[in-house]
Structure formats: C-alpha cells, structure tokens
Amino acid sequence: MKVVFIGAGNVATHLSAAMRQAGLCICQIYSRTEANAQKLAAEHACAWTTDVGALRSDADLYVFALKDAVLPKIVAQVSPDEGFWLHTAGSVPMDIFRGYARHYGVLYPLQTFSKKRPIDFRSVPCFIEADSAQSEQRLRTLAEKISSDVRLLSSEKRRYLHLAAVFACNFTNHMYVLADRILNEQGIDPTVLLPLIDETAAKIHTLSPADAQTGPAVRYDRNVIEKQSAMLTDPIVRELYELISKHIHLLSQS
C-alpha cells in the first residue's frame, strides 16, 4: 500500500513510522515547511514536496495530519480523488472530505506525541470512522495493523473525547510547567516532583479521579489556600489557583 502524508508534524512523524513498521510504503511527504518535509521524507527515504499541487495521484492512502485550522483549506486544494483519504484530528468532522474524495474516514490516535520521544503505537487507542461500511472495514484492517486497540466512534463523540483529552493531558502538562517554574525560581530541582507525578497518574488505574483527589482544596483549607495564593506574583496564575481550588472543593461536595 502506497501512502502519502500531508503534514510532517508530531502525529505524522509517529503515525508514518508505525505504518512503515506495519509494512506500508510511505511514498511522499507534504509540508508547507521545506525543512519539515525533508526531515520526515529522509526517515522514509521517499519524495517530498511543499506544493499541494505536486502530490502523487496514484497513492492508495492519503493521510491528512494537519492543524485543524488549515485542514479545510488544504483538503480543498488536493486534486487526486482516488485512494482513501483520512485525517487524524480530534475535533474535525469526517464530512470535511465530502465532495472531495470518494472514500474517506478518520483515524484519531488518542495519545500525546513529541517527535523526539518514542511511542509504542501498538498501545495507542485509535478511534475510527468511515463514510461507508466497506470503508469502515478497510480502515479497521489498516488501524489494526498499527494498534491493538481500535474503536469505532462518531465525529460528534470524538469531539468530546478530544475535549476530555485536553483536560487530561494538555491542561495537566500546563500545571507541570507552572510547578517547574515555581521550583526553578526557588533553586529547587523540579525532578523531585516526578515520583509525585507518577503516583498521581498511577492512582487513576485503580481509583476514580474523584476518589484520588487530595490536597487542601478538597476540604477548602482557607488558611493554606490564602497563604499559597499570596505567594503567586502572576495575577493570572493566582486567579487560576483560586478558581481550581474552588472547583475542586465544589466537586468534592457533590
């Protein structure tokens, strides 16, 4: 199977590697950034381009691994309507391909990806959706080559899954950034938090998030909360601290 990747970011890097490992042939990489296109193409020893109009027309699969904001514009510019088109976005409906491709779908890998950090793609849950029963079976067969956890999910449900992932991953990591800054400013090695971070995540495997919640906000220890709030010099971070503390307490009472 010949695959064209439209996009050369984090998702494209890991997904293309997983597909290659599964025996698929990555034959072309597109990116509007020449350096990114060249780098990913070098990993697959394949052609690359920064011109959407220069995409191969004979591929079996076209993978759109792009930012949500640019996806509609690029889809409208792609001329080959043969092959199977799929995108990897959490919040973009499958029907973005309607009128452009004959067979299409979505393969949304629920994981955080960084180019320089290896991922075992077999363990990544992949959520699929397709335009027809035939396309769905075709997409499932493909997805099961790279992941041991493949699930069917509609565009509407996928939007909520993506929203939940933003809270569970992106916002959580932002809290790590804030904690890292606090400790660096005080000359404390931020790695001392790693056992705490690991245990916080590990508890969710056996406890519900609500049951795993601890800290002064659960009982709303005003003395501690007010002192810590006063320590924060950034007004936005202070407001964030106070708002989250109130919400933790609110949910603990329900």
Notes on the structure:
An eight-stranded mixed sheet has the order 3-2-1-4-5-6-7-8, covered by helices on one side. It is built from nine helices and eight strands. The mean pLDDT is 97. Strand 7, helix 4 (133-146) and strand 8 (150-152) form a beta-alpha-beta unit. The N and C termini lie far apart (53 Å). It has two domains: 2-153, 3-Layer(aba) Sandwich (Rossmann fold), CATH 3.40.50; 158-252, ProC-like, C-terminal domain (N-(1-d-carboxylethyl)-l-norvaline Dehydrogenase, domain 2). Helices cover 46% and strands 15% of the residues. The chain is elongated and about 65 Å long. It is α/β, with parallel strands linked by helices. InterPro entries: 6-PGluconate_DH-like_C_sf (IPR008927), DUF2520 (IPR018931), NAD(P)-bd_dom_sf (IPR036291), P5C_Rdtase_cat_N (IPR028939), TM1727-like_C_sf (IPR037108). Residues 2-78 form the Pyrroline-5-carboxylate reductase catalytic N-terminal domain. This is DUF2520 domain-containing protein. Residues 124-247 form the DUF2520 domain.
Quick description:
It comes from Tannerella forsythia. This protein is an alpha/beta fold.
Descriptive terms for the model:
alpha/beta, N-(1-d-carboxylethyl)-l-norvaline Dehydrogenase, domain 2, 254 residues, 2 domains, Rossmann fold
